[in-house]
Amino acid sequence: MEEALPDFSGKVIWLEMAGAPETRGGILLEHVEFRTIAGRVYLAGRMVEGDVSGWLSGAEAGVAWDAVIHYLIFRSREDYEKRSAVHKPSLRERVFRS
């Protein structure tokens, strides 16, 4: 299994998980690596500062890899920040975030 895992070294990763509430969106991690805990594969990393409220910024976090349904790869934090600065919320995002 581990041979088939992607290499996210140096990347910032946006993850969406199966069963997560629509209002949650996803989770943005940096300094990610795969870890096996109790026989299950996790993508572990640090919550990106500025993307979440202050009490979560920089916190260690992990997501079960088999729960991930969608992910986006950004080359760096700067790449993510540049792209998110020009993001315009869709109608769906505006309705669910209200």
Written account of the structure:
The chain has 98 residues and is of the alpha+beta class. The chain has a single domain, classed as SH3 type barrels (Roll), CATH 2.30.30. Helices cover 16% and strands 38% of the residues. The protein is built from two helices and five strands, in the order βββββαα. A five-stranded antiparallel β-sheet has the order 4-3-2-1-5. A hairpin with a 2-residue loop joins strand 2 and strand 3. It is globular, with a radius of gyration of 14 Å. The chain starts with 11 loop residues before the first strand and ends with a helix.
What integer is the average pLDDT?
84
CATH class type: Mainly Beta
Number of strand segments: 5
What summary fits the major beta sheet? Answer: 5 strands, antiparallel
Strand content: 35-45%
Low-pLDDT windows of residues: none
Question: Count the helices. How many?
Answer: 2
Total number of distinct structural domains = 1
- Helix proportion range: 10-25%
| Strand order in the sheet with the most strands | 4-3-2-1-5
- The appropriate CATH architecture is Roll
